[in-house]
Amino acid sequence: MKILVLNCGSSSVKFQVIETSLEMIQANKDSAIAKGSVERIGMSDSRLSLEVPGRKTYQEISEILEHRTAVERILKVLVHPTQGVLGKVEEIEAVGHRMVHGGEKFASSVLVNPEVEEMIEECVVLAPLHNPHNLRGLRAAQALLSGVPHVAVFDTAFHQSMPPKAFLYGLPYELYTRHKIRRYGFHGTSHRFVAIHTARLLKRNLEDTRIVTCHLGNGCSMAAVKQGHSIDTTMGFTPLEGLLMGTRTGDMDPAVLPWVMAMEELTLAQLNAMLNKHSGLYGLSGVSSDMREIQKACSDGNRRAKIAFDIFCYRITKYIGAYAAAMGGVDAVTFTGGIGENSAEVREQTLAGLGFLGIELDAEKNRNLPRGEEVIITTPASRVAVAVVPTNEERVIARDTVRVLGGVMPSFAVPDNEAPR
Ligand code: ADP
Predict the structure, then answer these.
(1) What is the DSSP string of 75-103?
(2) For residue 336, how far is its CA from the centre of ligand 1 (angstroms)?
(3) What is the pLDDT of residues 46-61, one digit of tens each?
(4) Atom 27 (ligand 1): residue with closest C-alpha?
């Protein structure tokens, strides 16, 4: 079956058409037949692009003022007589939607119905920058593809298996019971995908493994995946916590915030912008949020870029140690995301001090990865395997859509992991 996957942001819609079925998923043969995006929604020069394997990228520039028009144009280009990949729109049998925040309401991917839609709406307060756009895309697609099922897949759902000792903060308990302030974690679809694929690569059952997954892109997070369940993750109530990121601070002393607000006379909006947009690799280096630029500046001798690079790697190293302790050992560490998949330097520096854990990197394999493939980059003698697994969040969304429709979508909730209300 063909599934349309939609990922709607504030001014963009990313899409893929994925040919899939339960059997194809089992055989790891599900794949995208087309992908693309609409960028700059709301502007007069919005850009639609379509990539089809083996063809030149097709682009269209026109005014697209809202998400519904964007989805309309996507459907139109998909059935375009020369550029398209579908004979008719009816070939799309279901739509999978990326949803950022499912709060504590969703520990699984779900078929959207009015009740589910209302529950997603209730999560807007937790992700005011993301969920409203996700919902806008969902409603546009429901209106244009009313005859097919729509499935919602949440970034947070995989981490709903965390126990209270991992998800509660040391704040007054009422903040949890009244406002649901706790660690949720994000990038769940990616952590789940790479953990499953790492177990497969190791020829082991996921249920018998302890895997630390490192998703390093513009946003970065790690997860401790024990026996297939996320038991801890670095991002928190929002994606700001944990690792150093392109423009986000990651972990820091919260007491700095009121202090900086007073000293620099910042408003709340300015403080938020500082933490989310002007910090991280960018704020430390003054060079860029892009790891390629940081690495280039390091080799040109830029000391602030080197500090930023060192902090970036050091935090990952620390969390690998922490998660090995949390899981009572570790069988594999997996890197994914733009940086995790492409930066041999980050992987090398991160793992350099971890010989004591039993990690023996194969320097040659680390430096010469076959592009886009899933590989192990440690020596055969290494007690802990290190893997690079390219992530594919759209593929997970399509897989979940098939599973939800086939009635075989597991819940990530585990018994006894609820905190007292
Ligand atoms: P997003 O989180 O937006 O999906 P990506 O997963 O594409 O982002 O990751 C973007 C990051 O990957 C950027 O910091 C970019 O510099 C980094 N990156 C991409 N290619 C390389 C490379 N060859 N070496 C180092 N970093 C890279």
Answers:
(1) HHHHT-TTT-S-SSGGGEEEEEEEES--T
(2) 10
(3) 999 999 999 999 999 9
(4) 339
Catalytic residues: 155
317 is a domain residue = yes
- Are 179 and 210 members of one domain? no
Residue with tokens 């999978």: 96
Give, using CA atoms, the residue closest to atom 19 of ligand 1. 338
How many Å lie between the centroid of ligand 1 and the Cα of residue 175?
A: 36
Burial class (CB in 10 A: 0-12, 13-18, 19+), 344: middle
pTM recorded for the entire structure = 0.95
Pocket of ligand 1, beta carbon within 6 A: 217-219, 246, 290-292, 295, 337-339, 342-343
Residue with tokens 């202090």: 259
pLDDT for 315-330, tens place per residue? 999 999 999 999 999 9
Taking the CA atoms of 341, 346, 352 and 357 in sequence, report the sign of the dihedral they define. negative
Q: Are residues 304 and 240 in the same domain?
A: yes
Query: Containing H/E element for 2?
Result: strand 2-8
Nearest Cα residue to 220 out of 237, 234, 231: 234
